[in-house]
UniProtKB/TrEMBL annotation:
Gene name of the encoded protein: xdh
Signal peptide: none
Protein name, entry field: Xanthine dehydrogenase
Cofactor requirements of the protein: FAD
GO MF terms held by the record: FAD binding; iron ion binding; oxidoreductase activity
Protein species of origin: Bromheadia finlaysoniana (Orchid)
Highest taxon in the source lineage: Eukaryota
FAD-binding PCMH-type domain sequence ranges: 110-295
Length: 330
């Protein structure tokens, strides 16, 4: 978990070793490899570096005291139990209760350059705003629009945050598949899929496993904590890691108009071209339906990039094959 968080938070040219070593005291690791390894030629070989070191020594003698004189005595390194963060649970700061109990309020804020930012709390209010401002940009984590504004000079006078609309944050298990709200964050989806994979029959979760595996390489932890499923879909980027999998998994997209009417579009028909999707003016993506995979159906993800982590794809693919009898059905 520590390495995963650091991978998206530091420049790649940063020296990771010292930082990761400093964080080890917060991780529950197997310290027996440092204390039980047999010395080679009288020297202890460090499991981390493969070089001789003193990290496995249980006693240290002839330490120099604060006055500069050699001091005799037995000293031992700090043990795992003494630095195990779990024993300090009672001393950790709690999340402020006033923030837990605080009720969200609909907001309208005015920003620099004439930007107006809305935060509706109900789907009807969101649809009314979208009807009033058809060109408004919907945002959740602002990971795409923020880049366009800050680095590409894009101008969006009306921004609508859909983060707190309950209907768009649904994650539920249906009889024939999963319903995923368009505002669901990617990290939340990742955890949900892990639970589903553990609980359901293995033949039902081929698509879930492929999406879960692809999410491992989808940006860093910090981005996945705020970026939404629907935002990634509607951006219609040709390098999207997930859109090929939605299509391969036979997913359906539920789209709602300003009057609350919902229509369904197959994922494979939703993408019309480069950053073009089947959304009419005033319509928004409501949710995604991911059907269970069937017996003898296999779904596989693929991503090739310059680097394994935190890099855009050179090639993405979502593949599905259904074996039916002795024939092969694609």
């Amino acid at each position: 978990q520590i390495e995963e968080c650091l991978s998206g938070n530091l420049c790649r040219c940063t020296g990771y070793r010292a930082i990761i070593d400093a964080f080890r005291v917060f991780a529950k690791t197997d310290h027996s490899v440092y204390t039980d390894s047999s010395p080679t030629n009288g020297e202890f070989i460090c499991p981390s570096s493969g070089k001789p070191c003193s990290c496995g020594e249980s006693k240290v003698h002839s330490c120099v005291g604060s006055a500069g004189h050699a001091a005799s005595g037995e000293h031992r390194p700090v043990s795992y139990s003494e630095i195990d963060g779990s024993i300090y649970k009672d001393k950790e700061l709690i999340f402020p209760p006033e923030l837990v109990l605080r009720h969200n309020l609909p907001l309208k804020l005015h920003g620099f350059g004439g930007i107006t930012w809305y935060r509706p709390l109900k789907l009807k209010n969101l649809l009314d705003l979208k009807s009033l401002y058809p060109a408004a940009k919907l945002i959740v984590g602002n990971t795409e629009v923020g880049i366009e504004i800050n680095f590409k000079g894009a101008q969006y006078p009306i921004l609508i945050s859909v983060l707190h609309v309950p209907e768009l944050n649904v994650l539920s298990i249906k009889e024939n598949g999963l319903e995923i709200g368009s505002s669901v964050r990617l990290s939340r989806l990742q955890e949900f899929l892990k639970e589903v994979i553990a609980e359901r029959e293995i033949h039902e979760t081929a698509s879930c496993r492929a999406i879960s595996e692809q999410l491992k390489w989808f940006a860093g932890k910090q981005v996945k904590n705020v970026a939404s499923v629907g935002g990634n879909i509607c951006t219609a980027s040709p390098i999207s890691d997930l859109n090929p999998l939605w299509m391969a998994s036979r997913a359906d997209f539920h789209i709602v108009d300003s009057k609350g009417n919902i229509r369904t579009v197959h994922a494979k028909d939703f993408f019309l071209g480069y950053r073009k999707v089947d959304l009419a003016q005033g319509e928004i993506l409501h949710s995604i339906f991911l059907p269970w995979s069937r017996h003898n159906e296999f779904v596989k993800e693929f991503k090739q990039s310059h680097r394994r982590e935190d890099d855009i794809a050179l090639v993405n693919a979502g593949m599905r094959v259904h074996l039916e009898g002795v024939g092969l059905k694609w």
